[in-house]
Amino acid sequence: MSSLVENIQVEPRKGPKYLFFDVEVTRIVDATPTVKLFDLRVPGRDSYRFQAGQFVQIDFPIDAKVTRRSYSIASAPDGGNSFQLCVGRVPDGLATRYLFEDVKVGSILKGSDALGRFVLPDVVEKETCFISTGVGIAPFRSMLLDGYARGIIKAPVSLFFGNRHESDILYRDDFEHMRRQFGLHFFPVLSRQHDWHGPQGHVHVHYTKFFADKRPCTFYLCGWRAMLDDARAHLTEMGYDRKDVKIELYD
Questions:
Q1: SS3 77
Q2: Counting Cβ atoms within 10 Å, is residue 197 exposed (0-12), middle (13-18) or buried (19+)?
Q3: What letter does residue 46 receive in the DSSP assignment?
Q4: In this structure, are residues 132 and 188 in contact, taking their beta carbons and an 8 Å threshold?
Q5: pLDDT band at 2, cuts 50/70/90?
Q6: What per-residue confidence (pLDDT) applies to 249?
Q7: 3-state class of 146 per DSSP?
Q8: CATH number of this structure's domain 3-112
Q9: Fewer CB within 10 Å, N side or C side of the chain?
Q10: From CA 211, how far away is CA 249, in angstroms rounded?
Q11: Are strands 82-88 and 35-41 parallel, antiparallel or unpaired?
Q12: What is the rounded distance in angstroms from the CA atom of residue 223 to the CA atom of residue 162?
């Protein structure tokens, strides 16, 4: 899965060539039947520096060619030389097929320095809402873990996370902990599990109700284009300015 940072002022991920270096796969977790978590470390460095919400580019040696993809970092910066990727399998996707079938613990790939401006401000003083579906949750986990750990979140934060089934809710324990410990308003929304006692249906129904009073808020959106287009249209219709809507597109 490749992703493109728009951040409203479109910031394409294609740009200057960056230095690539070895990254080693140290752990692989089957999060769901279609999502894997990959822990990677940079063996030649004491630390891998990144800001919560940024992405990394990975090169894959496929069919004697180099296939490059961009992935949001799902872990929070901790000063070490490791980071985590949350990757969903894309039907007929060359890179995800390679990741899911060929990459093992100990595999060496080529990775870049962290890139992108899809990040939180130095201090979160304005109410903030995160809206995502599927593996689009990755940068938000990073942002929330880091933001709460550093104490920079000074305003209410809500997370609307759309999935089909309860078993698809990635990092659920982390977000439930943030809800209990820090007061995160966590709304896992399921569209195809009718015995679910939480929010059901499309994720758009629920954040539009939550912000029906149109109070000031900064929105961060991450997911597939159709979801993002719908969300941006809903927020515009509600009267929110484009500068208050930050977007990361997965395509």
A1: coil
A2: exposed
A3: S
A4: no
A5: very low
A6: 87
A7: helix
A8: 2.40.30.10
A9: C
A10: 23
A11: antiparallel
A12: 10
Q: Which residues are paired to 20 by β-bridges?
A: 112
Share of the chain above pLDDT 90, in %: 86
Place of tokens 């890139």: 115
3-class state of residue 180 by DSSP: helix
Exposed, middle or buried: residue 203 (CB in 10 Å: 0-12, 13-18, 19+)? buried
Q: Which residue matches tokens 């933001």?
A: 147
Give the residue-averaged pLDDT of 116-120: 97
Q: Which of 99, 100, 136, 125 is nearest to 249 (CA)?
A: 136
**Strand pairing class (218-224; 245-250):** parallel
Measured distance CA(85)–CA(50) in Å, rounded: 13
Spell out the domain ranges in the chain.
Answer: 3-112, 128-250
Of 164, 167, 169, the C-alpha closest to 193 is 164
Q: Quick one: DSSP state of residue 73?
A: B
Q: Is there a contact between 81 and 23 (Cβ–Cβ < 8 Å)? A: no
**3-112 and 128-250 share one fold:** no
Cα(124)–Cα(211) distance, integer angstroms: 18
Looking at CATH, the fold of the domain delimited by 128-250 is given as Rossmann fold (3.40.50)
Burial class of residue 39 (count of CB atoms within 10 Å of its CB; 0-12, 13-18, 19+): middle
| E runs forming strands in the chain | 3-5, 20-32, 35-41, 55-62, 65-72, 82-88, 108-112, 128-133, 157-163, 185-190, 218-224, 245-250
**Cα(170)–Cα(137) distance, integer angstroms:** 8
Length of the chain: 251
